[in-house]
């Protein structure tokens, strides 16, 4: 596991339907968040590469494509993924992709649990600021600004009431919701819980690909003894 870059930045994983970080950050904040997030993912991929994970190469290419699609065309991403597929056994490639997927979900839950108070407070502050601005616009008879703020208030009230992870279960539900917004299919909270549990059992922040394989095998054996499907969930 890699630690967060020591640059004073924070990483926000949760995004709204428009693909932007929640709570309407300024353009400068969005740019800073994206830069820190990029550096963190790049450092994690580099660590995986140094540990012998060839899938980290295509993961890094994809990261640069997301950052600069005009400089890194999608075809280059697909070529790198094909190259990795030719260089690795399918079983290992699938296992490493599984590990990366479970690890990212675990990180999202941990991040949200650590920052739920900050995110909740930000929502309340944004609502209070908008309400104060609305009163000022009414007093100044600024009709255009008043109407703009009136349109914003329902969404701001909704965001101010969101529970961003006061409990582990709520954090897992929020991560599932966020991934469902940005992914090709719905993600259930149970799926996030399974990822969280397997990485926690594999060592949490110290989890490695090898410890993940050991834990995955242990869980598979338990499921077999209990007559559950190998892709089943709970022990």
Protein topology:
Layout: H1 27-50, H2 55-67, H3 74-87, H4 90-139, H5 143-160, H6 168-182, H7 189-201, H8 209-226
Word description of this protein:
This protein has 235 residues and is an all-alpha fold. The two termini are 26 Å apart. Helix 1 (27-50) runs antiparallel to helix 2 and helix 4 crosses helix 7. It has one domain (27-53, 89-226). The model is unreliable at 1-25 (pLDDT under 50). It is globular, with a radius of gyration of 21 Å. The relative contact order is 0.10. It is built from eight helices and no strands.
- What is the molecular shape? globular
- Please report the total strand number as a whole number: 0
User: Which sequence of SSEs, written as H and E, runs from N to C?
Assistant: HHHHHHHH
Low-confidence stretches: 1-25
Oligomer: single chain
The profile of the biggest β sheet is: none
- Helical content (DSSP H or I, runs of 4+): over 70%
Structural class: mainly alpha
Question: How many H/I helices?
Answer: 8
* % residues in beta strands: under 5%
How many structural domains in the coordinates? Answer: 1
The pLDDT mean sits at 81
Radius of gyration, taken over Cα atoms and rounded to an integer in Å = 21 Å
Give the terminus-to-terminus CA distance: 26 Å
Features:
single chain; 235 residues; mainly alpha; 8 helices; 0% strand; disordered N terminus
Question: Would you kindly provide a brief summary of this structure?
Answer:
The chain has 235 residues and is mainly alpha-helical. The protein has helices spanning 27-50, 55-67, 74-87, 90-139, 143-160, 168-182, 189-201, 209-226.
């Amino acid at each position: 596991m890699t630690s967060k870059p020591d640059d004073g930045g924070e990483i926000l994983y949760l995004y709204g339907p428009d693909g932007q970080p929640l709570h309407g950050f300024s353009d400068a904040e969005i740019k800073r968040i994206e830069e820190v997030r990029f550096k963190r993912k790049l450092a994690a991929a580099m660590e995986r590469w140094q540990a012998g994970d060839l899938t980290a190469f295509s993961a890094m290419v994809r990261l640069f494509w997301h950052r600069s699609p005009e400089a890194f065309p999608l075809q280059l991403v697909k070529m790198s993924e094909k190259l990795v597929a030719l260089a690795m056994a399918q079983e290992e490639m699938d296992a490493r992709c599984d590990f990366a997927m479970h690890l990212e979900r675990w990180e999202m839950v941990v991040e949200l649990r650590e920052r739920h108070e900050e995110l909740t407070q930000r929502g309340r502050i944004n609502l209070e600021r908008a309400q104060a601005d609305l009163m000022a616009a009414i007093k100044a008879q600024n009709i255009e600004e008043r109407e703009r703020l009136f349109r914003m208030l329902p969404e701001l009230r909704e965001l101010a009431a969101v529970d961003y992870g006061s409990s582990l279960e709520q954090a897992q539900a929020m991560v599932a919701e966020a991934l469902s917004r940005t992914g090709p299919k719905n993600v259930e909270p149970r799926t996030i819980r399974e990822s969280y549990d397997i990485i926690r059992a594999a060592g949490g922040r110290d989890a490695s690909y090898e410890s993940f394989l050991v834990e995955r095998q242990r869980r598979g054996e338990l499921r077999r003894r209990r007559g559950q499907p190998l892709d089943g969930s709970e022990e």
